[in-house]
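Student: Send me a single protein entry containing the residue sequence and its fold in C-alpha cell form, directly below this note:

Tutor:
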Amino acid sequence: MSVQLHASMDEFLPLRDVVFNTLRKSILTGELKPGERLMEIHLANQLGVSRTPIREAIRKLELEGLVIMIPRRGAEVAQITEKSMKDVLEVRRALDALCAELACDRITVQETERLKNACEKFEQETMTGDATTMAEADVALHDIIVAATGNQRLIQLINNLSEQMYRYRFEYIKDENQHNRLVEEHRIIYESIVHRDKEAAARAAKVHIDNQEKSIIRQIRMEKE
C-alpha cells in the first residue's frame, strides 16, 4: 500500500471516529483504490494508532458498502461496479427529481440566492482543476436544493446515500471533459427552480444523473480494457 494517510486529529472527536473519517475520505477520493487491501497493522502504523480503532473503522466502512471482507484475505476497498453504481444512482435520480419539484414550491428568496452563488462557486472551482474542491462545491449546491424541500424524511434519505453518492460524483468530476456540461446542467436546474417550473426542474435533475451514469460506465469499461 503506497498511499500516505494522515489523520486530521479533531480534539472533539473520539479517536475511532477520526480514523473512520480519515479512511472513508481516502476511499471516497480514490486515494485508497478499489481492490486495495486494508491491512490493520500497516494502517495503524501509518496513522499512529492501535489496531482497535482501525478494526472499528473497517467494520463501519463495511456497513456503508465502501469496504468488503474477503475470506482468507481480509478487508478490501469495494470495487466501483456498474451494478453498485446503477443501484445508487437509480434511487438518487428519483429523489433528486422529487427534491427539484418540491424546491420549486418551497425555496425561499435567501435559498435562491445561495443556490445562485453555489452555481457560480462550482463554475469557479472547475477552473482550478482540483477535483476535491469541485466535488465539495457540487455537494454544497445540491444540499441547498435538498434543504429547500423542508422535508426531513427526504433529507434523511438523501443523507443516507450521500457517502456512496460522493464516490461516484468524484469519479465523474475527475473527467475534465464533463466540466462545461456540469456547469450548464446546474444552470438549467437553477433557472427551472427560480421560474417554479416543476416539470423542467425534475427533467433537468434526471438528465444530470443520467449523464453522470453514462460517464462513469465509460470509465469503468475503459479500465477493464
Remarks:
- The two ends are 24 Å apart (CA to CA).
- The first strand starts at residue 67 and ends at 70.
